[in-house]
Amino acid sequence: MTVIDMHSHFFPEMDASRSEKARISGLPWLLKTDAENGYIMVGDRHFRPITNACWAASARLEDMDRCGVDVQVMSATPVMFGYSRPAKDAAESAAFFNDLALDLCAPDPARLKVMCQVPLQDTDLACKELERAMAAGHIGVHIGNHLGNRNLDDEGLMTFMQHAASIGAPVLIHPWDMMARERMPKYMLQWLVAMPAETQLSILSLILSGAFERLPRSLKLCFAHGGGSFAFLLGRVDNAWQYRDIVREDCPNRPSSYLDRFYVDSAVFSDEALKLLVDVMGDERVMLGSDYPFPLGEQQIGDLVRHHADLGDEAKARILGGNAATFFNI
Asked: Which residues form the Amidohydrolase-related domain (predicted)?
């Protein structure tokens, strides 16, 4: 059985000239404090501390060996997206980060895979960079779950996802720029409350708007963090669809009938939550995702699935690697 962790993040090193240019421009860059530690900087501001697992393939491979992970799929740390920047600048930055990501995979490309990022604020440039990155060796694309007030049912974002389907590019959707941050200044509440809500909002924006009726079934979509609060609240959504016409106005079918249109990862951190997730989604729609190497990620990657008493061997094999192998054509 091949174990594939399909949700992990990286933040690359860059040379001194590029780092200084990023600092002046207010872009994210890496400030190393020693060989194993550093900070993601945004301009002159400390954004978050990180370890060399973000930028050193050797550290990542060592952790993969420790956890029994055969393949890890990396994606950008969301602060790298640059969606608020001018589209041309964001396109140049995306291409730069995408090339550095492939460099990070170079020490062991059989075990280290990566998804690209794109300048999502400009559909044409996003499609162009997706094509370039896929041709260069990326195995999918990682996008944020919204652009300002534009949810995933926005026409531009729909066009991009349709294009991703047309060239066979799987899409990982990750929450970012969380809602109501002014009400959540402490205790990581943005990550603990807003992030799951953002993900549920993204899924429902596709279901209730009728977007899935216009997206091809060939589109491979995955939502991070177990789909956020979606699985737990799906009964509420179905109930609302049944009894309120304003909920089903643009959604021709019961919301729970769309579960075969997307995947989720396994980053839910408790036996009870994983059981609910598998009960709702089916074990063929859940993939191992750790959120490595950040503190809110699974520290012993895959243990929640491996040791789950209610999952059989076949279900564990699908979640630990089989589903991701199909999703990414690995």
From this structure: 4-329
pLDDT tens string 151-163: 999 999 999 999 9
Buried b (16+ CB within 10 A) or exposed e, 227-266: bbbbbbebeebeeebeeeeebbeebeeebeebbebbbbbb
Count of structural domains, the chain: 1
Task: Give residue 190's identity as a one-letter amino acid code.
Answer: Q
172, 140 Cβ separation under 8 angstroms: yes
The alpha carbons of the chain give a radius of gyration, in whole angstroms, of 19
Report the pLDDT value the prediction gives residue 27, as an integer from 0 to 100. Answer: 87
Q: Which two tokens stand for residue 296?
A: 């809110």
CATH assignment at residue 90? 3.20.20.140
Q: Residue 188 sits in which domain range?
A: 4-328
Q: How far is CA 297 from CA 38, 238, 267, 294, in A?
A: 18, 30, 7, 5
